[in-house]
Amino acid sequence: MGIQQDIDDLLTLSRQLLQAIDDGDWEIYRQLCDDELTAFEPEAAGHLVEGMQFHRYYFELDGNAPLQSTISSPSVRVWGDIGLVTYVRLIQTVDSAGAPHTAAAEETRVWRRHDGGWRHVHFHRSNN
Prior knowledge:
The chain is α+β, with helices and mostly antiparallel strands.
């Protein structure tokens, strides 16, 4: 497997991960992530979150508003069994009045190759 294939795979997996988040699909999200996933994100109020339970809470909320995430300006780096994907995530939503809105977040996703596949092991998200 070559470096370009790894880059393509990591972008595809990152898009699948965002689609699972947008769809509220816990099973797909869980399959893509390591059980010991770590994260810094606005919802954690500056704290390092470890494990999946913190994230599961958000999947269990009753979110009726449609979401669509788009990866903009991606950069992918691979060092052996570690992959780093950085991008701006554009998040499109519709408010209660039906008006569309777009927000942006800077995201860094770290992937580790394990047992022939990639697992999401860490991320950092900063809202603009």
